[in-house]
Structure formats: C-alpha cells, structure tokens
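Q: I'm building a small set of examples for a reading group on sequence design. Run inverse folding on the following structure and report the sequence directly after it, with nothing in between.
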C-alpha cells in the first residue's frame, strides 16, 4: 500500500492546475506590483483581477479583500487593531479556538487590560447560545466576538448566520476564523453580517504562505505591519504575486467543483465511520465529528479504546505504516501538551486514550480507508 495522507486539515496537496498557474506567474510576471513600469503594472493588474475574482465568491467589494501570509496573520490583524484602534474593551470567544486567536487574545489582555469572556460549551463542544446571548446583552462594553466557523480539531460547524445576526442585534463586532471552511462551504457575506473573516490557501489545495482577510468596508481597522502602502494600506510589503495567483486558482477550482467534490469527500468520511464502527465497535467520535450534519465533511476525530501506555505510541505506529494523521492542530504538534480542544470536552479517562484526527480530500480513496481501518484494528487488538 502506498503512503496514505489523512491529514488534510493540517494542509492539503496543491492541485496540479494551481502549480501550473503559480509557475507561469513566477516565470512571466516577475515585476514588483508597486513599480510604475509595464512589468510592475502587469503584476499589479493580475493581483487586482484575482482580488476581484475572490470577492465575487463572497459577494463583497474587491476592496474588502486584503491578502495576507495566511490565517494567523489575518486573525492577528483583526484582533489587535480592533482593540488598539476601534476601542474594543471586551472580546468574547471560546476555549476551543485556534491558538492564532487564543494566544492573540491572551496577549491583548496582558497589553491592554481588556476583558476576555469565554462562552460556555455544551458536552459535544458546541457553543451554548444562551450563555453567549447573556454575555452580549449584559455588558455595556464595546465588544468583539471571535468564534470559528468550523473547528479545526473536532470539525464542529457553527451556525454562522445565527451568530452574525445575534452580534449585529447587540452592536457587537464579529470576527470568524474560517480557515477550515473557506473553499469547502459557500459564505455569502452580502447576506451574513460578519465584520471580519480569515482564510488560508493551503487548506483548499492552494500554496502555503498566503491567505486573505475580509475587512468590512469602513470598519476603521488599521495595519498590523507598517511600511509601504500595499494592500490599500492595510498590509505593507511587496505582494507575493505567484502565491496570490495560486490562492485565486485554488479557490476558483474549489467552488467550481464544490458540489461533486464535497459529495465525494463526504462519501469517504461516511465510509470511514461505517468501517470503524464495524471493525472497532468501541470507538467514540469526539465532539460532533461523527455526525455528518453537525460537523464538516472533511474530518473526523476518533477516540480509541486503548490503554494509556499503549496509546502513547499510537500515532508513531501509524506513521510507521505509512499513514499520516494527527492528534490535532499541526501548529501545536511540537508541544508536549495534549489538545486544548479535547481537554475542554473529554473526561479525564478518555483524555488518557489516544484520540486521532483523520481528515480527507478529493485525493483519498475507499481503498485507503480499508487499509487504515485494518491497520487501526490490528493496533487496537494486539
């Protein structure tokens, strides 16, 4: 069996068509977009074309799309400027956000003394809507809510439309980390009153090192990085034209083929769940990841019935068998600590068992699922 890549929530393989576009732009459009000569104008016109194309998918103005190095920079830009420049005194978030949000919020509390409120979670990891509403209603402070659309570890989907309306009716700004959902779900920002949104190309078969931030018009947000006037003054630094081209092409292909490809990947996830339940009946699915309606179709997070001493080497043994998966966010893979997401929703006993995130893409097959499930069954039973 060839190596199996079931870690698409960490990053996805780049589509061949995207590589072709990137290569062509690197070869033919090497002018600095800020230069006034024809080489520079050629690069600049490409960037603006891609900006316009991307804006169209979300039904927004091109001026509201700001290219960044990825989701982490976009999260930092929004959160830091909201406090520093917009006068936000209180941030409402959850303890299962990506660390790009959690660590930024912690730093802002340290630097500016702002109030941080964590909304309560249900046992399955979903947001308690009544507690969220009480936090919004009962505080006179200027507030920003930062909650992710799709959780990167357990795959829970947030009712982003309902959240946006709740925030709007309570005069709170809304930022959403949509890194795991852009390219996988349609998000109509002309209908959903989200103020800020973060996305990253490498989560939908584009290149690493590029993403974008949606900033609602007339928000008042100010730059995080200072220097030149690139990106309408929001983000100084020479734009990475070839990466922006790759982002735009990847997004175009993702939305062009969304119905067929999402059905295919959903079939892979559904088959994986069925086979796991058949071969290892004692498995449990963390959060809502085993529910195809309440979680993203791209991933599942599984708790295995294995003793702690055996579970410690579980991921390593899978790697030896050529299977790539993860304990959770790739951004904390070097940490000795367990998943902060699972720590919020699992019992102490279940936290001692190995929990593995498997995430899928159009490049996976049911034959791969069969191999992975057989390998897992053998590991559990021996």
């Amino acid at each position: 069996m060839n190596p199996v890549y079931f870690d698409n929530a960490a990053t996805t393989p780049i589509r061949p068509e995207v590589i072709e576009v990137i290569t062509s732009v690197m070869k033919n459009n090497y002018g600095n977009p800020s230069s006034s000569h024809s080489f520079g104008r050629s690069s600049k016109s490409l960037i603006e074309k891609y900006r316009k194309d991307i804006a169209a998918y979300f039904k927004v103005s091109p001026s509201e799309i700001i290219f960044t190095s990825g989701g982490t920079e976009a999260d930092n830009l929004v959160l830091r400027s909201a406090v520093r420049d917009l006068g936000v005194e209180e941030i409402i978030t959850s303890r299962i956000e990506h660390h790009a949000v959690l660590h930024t919020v912690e730093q802002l509390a340290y630097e500016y003394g702002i109030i941080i409120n964590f909304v309560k979670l249900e046992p399955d990891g979903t947001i308690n809507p009544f507690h969220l509403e009480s936090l919004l209603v009962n505080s006179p402070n200027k507030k920003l809510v930062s909650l992710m659309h799709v959780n990167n570890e357990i795959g829970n989907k947030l009712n982003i439309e309902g959240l946006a309306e709740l925030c709007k009716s309570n005069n709170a700004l809304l930022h959403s980390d949509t890194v795991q959902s852009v390219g996988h779900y349609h998000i109509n920002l002309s209908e959903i009153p989200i103020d800020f949104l973060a996305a990253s190309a490498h989560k939908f078969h584009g290149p690493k090192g590029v993403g974008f931030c949606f900033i609602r018009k007339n928000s008042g947000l100010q730059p995080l990085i200072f220097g030149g006037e690139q990106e309408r003054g929001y983000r100084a630094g020479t734009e990475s034209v070839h990466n922006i081209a790759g982002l735009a092409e990847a997004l175009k292909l993702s939305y062009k083929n969304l119905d067929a490809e999402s059905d295919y990947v959903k079939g892979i996830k559904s088959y994986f769940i069925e086979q796991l339940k058949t071969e290892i009946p004692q498995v449990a699915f963390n959060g809502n990841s085993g529910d195809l309606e309440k979680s993203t179709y791209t991933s599942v997070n599984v708790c295995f019935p294995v003793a702690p001493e055996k579970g410690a080497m579980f991921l390593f043994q899978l790697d030896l068998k050529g299977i790539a998966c993860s304990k959770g966010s790739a951004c904390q893979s070097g940490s000795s600590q367990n998943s902060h997401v699972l720590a919020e929703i699992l019992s102490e006993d279940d936290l001692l068992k190995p929990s593995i995130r498997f995430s899928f893409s159009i490049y996976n097959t049911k034959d791969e699922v069969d191999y992975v499930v057989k390998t897992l069954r053998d590991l559990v039973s021996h």
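Residues 16-256 form a domain with the Aspartate Aminotransferase; domain 2 fold (CATH 3.40.640.10).
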